Prior knowledge:
The protein is mostly beta strands. It has helices at residues 26-29, 57-61, and strands at residues 3-6, 11-16, 20-25, 41-45, 67-68, 76-77, 97-101. It is globular.
Amino acid sequence: MPFFSYGSGITLHCIIKEKTxxxxxxxxxxxxxxxxxxxxxxxxxxxxxCPQNHRCPAVGVCPSGALTQKGVAAPKVDKRKCxxxxxxxxxxxxxxxxxxxxxxx
Length: 105
């Protein structure tokens, strides 16, 4: 009868017949990326992708208030307030808000 125990992190150890031990790393097994050093990114507005015909839902979800919008125009980013968390990108359905690599880093 197999015995399952959870190790540290996301590794599962399975012991079968006392002598055989298998370890599964779920992230690599399912093709997920391991968390490594993050590269610096900055929020960018791609105005050519923004339909500019509605109130942007991402403006309301920005935790730091860095996004503003006049009328139905494409939103503007206040770089001094933006924390580059990327939350707004999940609410921009046309894909006009993107996190891009910082240039020169």
